[in-house]
Amino acid sequence: MISPAATPTPLTVSRGVRLGYAVGSFCTANFSAIPGLLLLIYMTDVLAVPALLAGIIVFLPKAWDLVINTLVGQWSDRTVSRWGPRRPWMLAGSIILPLSFGLMFIGPPLTGVPAALFVGVVFVVAATGYALYEVPYKAMPAEMTSDYHERTSLLQWRMVFVAIAIAMSGILAPAIAGKSVEGYRQMGLIFAAVLLVSMFGSFFGTARAPFTGQQEAEGTLRGQLAAARTSKPFLWLLALCSAQTLAAGVMLAGAPYFAAYTLKNTGATSTLFAALVGPMLVTMPLWVWLARRLDKRGAMLLSGVLFSAGALLAVATPLFGALYAHLCVVLVGVGYAGLQLLGFSMLADVIAYDGAVSGKRRGGVFTGLWTAVESAVQAFGVTVYGAALTIGGFISSDPANPVTQPASALTAVIVGLTVVPALIALAGVIMTLKYDLSAERMARATAPSPS
């Protein structure tokens, strides 16, 4: 266990630990963003995999996530070591994920179905490494502080690093990859090195993290899963955040197609991502203030509405041009910044609330289920966009054999990036109304019992 001596007060987290924890967000953001952004178009436009099959290959490995993430959550809940319950598993993931990530984009001498199978198998291995790291990583904020608003402040630092990592994923990764096997191979190796450095940095940077969580773990996996299934705040939070993640996943998969076929500029993928992540770098203090002013649920409602509005407005891009499209994405980015910060802060609240009510440490299973569903939903966003392209008659190709897309495919590119995610995000806004874990309820749950 981590020594209590390393914790000056259960309510505050030192700047060094905040930075050490935050740097691990390069893993979260890069592994979520790069496959979501480039894996589909890598298969359809470089490896000549049919669009629907490519979308399925991206999604199917997520069935494994439902198993491995839950198991990793239980293992980390029950672990007792001098490194604490979470960090040994983070170390294992730090070894597996970077290697498999590099292999995923290695550009095998295969095309079509064999190439899809290769990518799918390596993606499963990468997902395993991601689970080993990400599940315990997400559980840590609930155990670093017992203060409701301090969690949001702590995660503000994480979101800044997420923004930087998304900018790298959305701007540098496409620029390096281009549309060639060699470009994708180089991109995979470079970002594998980024993952390795950031994940090890977070492992060592959280060595002196405070631990305010429950000391006793839930005895059985069945008991932990039952707790998650019967936690109304957790289920509603999972549902509303899944809707927002699905909307973001659809937009992420569609960005390269939108740049190439709507804006007629493949380089616009990078500028669109700059428009998306720019607000994340400058609006975090605003969202922290709004979370205090409106409570987290009110701020989450506002962020979902902004995300939906920006996506829906972008449908008029063919009429108003590239500048208009980028301004719409800025609005999406403001909403997305709030969704990211508040979602993780509210997850930490749910874990802390469960620990206070039950007296058990089972946050790992909560985050395991969360991460499994989050990964599956984001990958399903790629499948949804791939299905939209298929309905529109999109024709897959490789660089040596370019094709001209039909008008219906060009319409599907736009609708898939705008109307579809806007409607999904609005469903998340409606579900947010059912979430009821407020600051007052948290205070009652964590208040000392009268003697």
Automatic annotation (TrEMBL):
Q: Which UniProt keywords apply?
A: Membrane, Transmembrane, Transmembrane helix
Q: Where are the transmembrane segments?
A: 21-42, 48-68, 89-107, 113-133, 154-177, 189-213, 234-259, 271-291, 298-317, 323-348, 369-395, 407-433
Per the record, the domain of life is Bacteria
Read off the InterPro entries from this record. Answer: MFS_2 (IPR039672), MFS_trans_sf (IPR036259)
Report what the protein is called: MFS transporter
